[in-house]
Structure formats: structure tokens, C-alpha cells
Amino acid sequence: MFVSSSPVGRFRFPAAVALTAGVLLSVSACGSIDPLASGGSSDAPSDTIVVGSAGFAESEIIAEIYAQALEAQGVTVSKQLNIGQRDVYLAALQDGSIDLIPEYSGNLLQYYAADSTARSSDEVFDALSSALPDGFRVLERAAAEDKDSYNVTAEFAEKHTLNTLSDLANLDETFVVAGNPELAERPYGPRGLTDVYGVKANLMTFSPINDSGGPLTVSALIDGTVQVADIFSTTPAIAENKFVTLADPKNLILPQNVLPLINSDSASDLVVKTLNNVSAQLTTEDLIDLNARNQGDEKAAPAALAQDWLTEKGLLSS
Amino acid sequence: MYSLDAAGSLMNYLWDSILWIFTPAHLSGPTGVWARLGEHLFYSGLSVLCAAVIATPLGLFIGHTGRGRALVIWLTGALRALPTLGLVTLLALLLGLGLLAPLLALTVLAIPPLLAGAYAGVESVDPAASGAARAVGMTEWQILTRVEVPLALPLLVGGFRSAFLQVVATATVAAFVPLGGLGRFIFDGLPVRDYPQMLAGAILVIVLALVSDAVFALIQRIVTPRGVRVARSGQDHAEILR
Amino acid sequence: MEWIFANAENIWRLTRDHFALSLPPIVLGLVFSLPLGWLAHRYRWSRGALLTVSGLLYTIPSLPLFVILPVLIGTKILDPINVVIALTLYAVALLLRTVTEAFDSVSPEVRQSSLAVGFSPLQRVTRVELPLALPIVVAGLRVVSASTVSLVSVGSLIGVSSLGDLFTSGFQRDFPTEIMVGIGGTILIAGLLDLLIVLGGRWCTPWMRPARS
Questions:
Q1: Interchain proximity A181–B233, CB inside 8 Å
Q2: Which helix or strand (DSSP H or E) is residue B67 part of?
Q3: pTM of the model as a whole
Q4: Which residue numbers delimit the ABC transmembrane type-1 domain (chain B) (predicted)?
Q5: Of the residues A245, A268, A288, which one is the last residue of a structural domain?
Q6: How close B74 gets to chain A, by Cα (Å)?
Q7: ipTM score assigned to the predicted complex
Q8: B105-142 pLDDT per residue, tens
Q9: Residue B122 class from Cβ within 10 Å (0-12 exposed, 13-18 middle, 19+ buried)?
Q10: Topology, domain C2-202
Q11: B223 lies within 8 A of chain A by CB
């Protein structure tokens, strides 16, 4: 197969292995890109706050806002963004991989107390504070809200006179609901539509689309692949495409105020004060604007958006 | 102690997911195990077929003429490095929802092993055999179809074997964009950390891969012409190029 | 284009992370599969078992493996080590077969003659069999490297940062450029590693310079 002129004595393979091992070690020694060290807080000094975010852009933007606001106050921060869905990042908070993450009040409450009867923003916040497991704590909520919302196209709404979720119960043809896969398991998912609004389960099928109400969900709604889509209420595409958001008079979907969920040990006075200042200024309109800049033509990065917002609100000067 | 714990919890999870699979409610219906298994086979088969339409003639041509070999080796290397997750998300944005995007991504994945199997197969044919065929007056086409392809069949099928295996395992990643198949169990279980469901998806993929591997091994044995033993070196060749 | 410049820092960070996640599985895969492959080549009893297990490993889909590993070995769920371990398993699974066959390809005559000139068994392996098997091993390592670099991106789905982050983020906000940058970066890393492996292979086997016929 190949010409071999006495390899013996000229073989450099052991040297090559040693060299590679050396390179590997030096790469690992360079802490910033060390894949073998844990990415969590175990190697970070205890006064470092690891900020996490869920796996969608808005959470990332708010996490950047938290991180940069804290940094401006001299707090040491590291970031572990884009983690995934709630079940995953809460586990990460539990095992100490992260210390702080932006959350939404209603969904968080339903996660810990699925049978809670709290409905108003205040009730939800109070119930949440007591439902949290030991070691976790939520700080002041922002006025800003972003919740799951069920949307239909204007034509579909007109054709079937749909205004609220209860109107869905009057549909007498089969229809498809789109949402992230986990919606199927959530109390406010298709099951909730049936239980709370009497939507006929035999007419409704669920189509999981893995983009958190992003472009594929939107295009599926437009081209009629699905008839109802769960899209976050701060998504600019809702207004752009003149979708009709079905009203939720029975509060199937709870109020979803943005708030910081933090590991109690990390919640020093300075941290609490800084994050409360952020929450005091964050509005729903801000979220829609930030999302529009992130998803629209500008495609601005979360870090840059966070910096702009903090500068505008005067939160970067200590 | 520690490793015992790990082994124990693995066993528990495995048991849970086997129970999960055989729960009647999970077996039947349009989102049940049988339906997903069928979808998975359908996507995998279809994309390997599409890839074969492109790769097999090309590979045979290269193997027969020896032309473009360097280019193809370079190309298959580059194709291998294409991340399926990136490809499938990109194609989904460009082509929209539906079967087309994941199908294309999986087809790209299946091309390198098929191509390698085809040209390595033809190349592995003893030049004496094709030379003899030429001497008795066969046309190049006849040499290819009557001598080289039959002799190359074991390696050709070997290419299908590894292509199908890779596609079956990777079709799960393709379920990141809306798609049925066994990847659904994995992606539906992931956000809610439903381990039994995720593992059930993984187990089904593994079983499917093993069964199809065995089927291909059988086909490989059947198509090996009598009197021809696959030369070891030829086999090596295909494995490496895989 | 503008987006690339505006986000150069972030892209560079993800590229470094991606590279750092790719390298250990490739090197560790080689380190583990060499002795195992020799074992499978040398002893009939180990051959069936090793090759079957590695074949089985390779069929496990990557995503569930990433998720279940921390449960099994007690690591933190966001720890990049989960991805490194999983990809090392794949690398071994892919390489083991190649290494075994590479050792198989060393002709018995050569082995006999090395015995005749008085090499000890260890010398025979390290100074005769391994060097002769190396070209095939290198070819296998190139495949492993390409597939590892491509699989690292799946880690993004479980919160381990790499160029794969650009795929999920680009997907969620309908931004093909971002995905293309991620794909381009992945191919660049794969190309770089491939080059290193080829050069390293040549450097190790100077007698191969005349090249294969």
C-alpha cells in the first residue's frame, strides 16, 4: 500500500503525542477558553454573580441589562446566557451554575405552584414569593410584561368572529395550535384551553415549533399551516402582520411581570438595590422596542441593546 | 459507591423509558411510537435515496475514470464538517416549514459515505479483471456495469450502510425544525427535562440503527459475488473514507 | 456584513469556545483508541466485544447523551465537560475500528522480521506496528475531527456555548447571515484541524514523503 523505507529509528509519533498533549495543556491553562473547568460558579470567586438567561433573545437582553447594571456598580459579573427552557435553567440555578436570571412572574409561579389561584399581578407576586423553594428569591417586579398570547390572522378572526379565547370553543372545524414543544405540558397550553374555555379537544391538534414564537411560527400562521399560534406578546411581528391576539378574560395566562430570580446568597444590598432600580424603569414598550431592534433589520446584539437602554435611563453612572 | 449510584440511576432511567415506550397511550396514534418510527424511517430512507441519485453515478464515474478524485476527497471532507444543526436551521429559514429543509440537510449528510463507497468500490476492483474485460472487447459502459459494479457491490452497499446509520442518528437533530420522527420525543422531552421520554427516543433510534445495520450487513453478504472475498485492504479503504 | 463587524468580538469568542470544545475529544479519542484498537487487533476475545460496544456507542443520538450524562456522572448540567465526554465517546467509537484495521494491515512478514532482529514485544508495537499503521490512523482521525467539530454545535441546545449559538439565535430571529457565519466558522475550524492533522501525520512519518502510489 505504501513505500516503507525503514521507519525504525525515524519515527516521531511519541514526540508528536507529547507535543499535542503540551498544546492541549497550554490551551487548558488559558482560563478563558478552558472547556474542562466547570462553566459555573464553582471556579469563580464567591462574590462573582453568574447571570443566566433563557434560550430566547428577550431573556438574553434583560440578562445583559442586569449584568451591565451590576457591573456599573462594581459587582463582579460573569455570564452564562442562552441556557434553554425554564426546567433547565432552574436546575442550573439550583446546582449553582448560575446565580441570577430574568424571569416572568406568572410562569414561574405556575412552575412551582401549578394549582395556585392567584390571578392579578399583585396576587401572583405575593404567591410567588412564598412558593419559591428555599435559597431562591425574587426581587421587585418591573411594570414590563411579556406573556404567551394566542394569535390568529385577521382573516381567520373575521371569518369565525374570534375576539377572545372563549370564541375558540365555537369553532366547528379542526384547527392546529402552534407553540414551543413544552406548551403541550403547560397549564396554559391546549389542555388549559379545553379546561378553562371549553375548546373542543377533538378538533384541536398541537404542532410543536421550536422557535419560541419566532419566524417559523409566524410564517406557519400566515400560510395557514396552523390557525392559532402562541407568540410572546412583546414580539414585533404581531403588529407587523396585523395578527389578532385573542383576549384572555379568565386569565388562563397569568400576568407575566419581568423580575429577577436570584440565589438568596447572592442578593447583597447593593445587588438588590441595583436590580430594583432597573425594574423600576423597565416597561413593556421598552421590551417591544428592544425586541424590534434585535429582530428587525438592525439585528442589534443583546449586549449593545442593554447598554443603550441603561444609558438612556441613566443607570450606568453610579 | 459513586459508580454504583451512577449505574443504578442509569438502570432506573432505562427501565422508566422502556415502560414509557410500552405504555399503550404512547404506542399508538398519530404521535405514538409506531407513527414516529414510521416517519423516521421514511425521512431517512428518502434522504438516503436522494443522496444516492446524486452520489452513486458520480462515485462510479470517478472510480471508473479516476478523474476528479482529489476534488471529491476534498469535497467530502468539507461536507462532513458542515454542521447539520446549522444547515437545517438555515434551510428552514430559506425554504420555510415542511419536509424540504430537513430532507435536504440529511441528503447532504448522506452524500460523503455514499460517494466514498461507490468510488472506493470501483477502485478496489482488480485492474486485471477490468483489463481482461477490455481485452475481450467490452465497451467501457459494459466494463462498468457488468464487471466493476458487480464486484464493487459489497463496498457500494457498505456506503449505503454507513450513510443510513448516520442519517438515522442525525435525523433527531433535524427535528429541531418542526418535523416528526423519533427526534420529536427528544425535543419534546428536552425543555421539560422529561428523561424517560428523551431516553425512549434515544433507545428507539439506537434499536432502529442496529436493526438496519444488521439488515445492510445481510444484504452485503448476499450481494458479494461468489468466489469474491472482499479484500481486507479494500474494506479498510472504505472505512477510512467514511 | 455590517452585522459581522458589529459582532466580531462575540463571534470570535464563540469561535474560540468552539475550538476549545473540539480539541480535547479529538486528542483524547486518539489517546484512548490506540491501545484499545491494538487490543482488539491482537486478541480475538476482545475484538468482538470492543467493536460491538463502539458500534453501539456511535448510534446514540448526541442530544440525549448530552442531557443524560450529568445525571449519570454527577456533573453540573451546564458544564462543558458533558459535551467533551460525549464527543470523546463518539471519537473513540469511530476511531477504534480504524485503528484495529490499521494494525491488521501491517503484514505478518514485517512482524516476523522484527521478531527476528530481536525487538522486544513492546518495541515491536511502538517502533514497527504503530508507525506502519499510522497513515491509516491519520486518515481516520481526519474523519473524527470533522465530525467532532460539526457535533460541538449541538451543545448549544443544552446551554454550552459554541458557534452553534449562532444557529439557534439566527433561527429564532429569521437571520440567515448569522447562521451562515456560524457554518463558515465551523468549516474554518474543521479545515484548520484537518491541516494540523495532515501536517502532524507527515511529520511523524518522514519515510512516507514519496507519497502513496
A1: no
A2: none
A3: 0.82
A4: 37-216
A5: A245
A6: 21
A7: 0.86
A8: 999 999 999 998 998 889 888 888 888 998 998 988 89
A9: buried
A10: MetI-like fold (1.10.3720)
A11: no
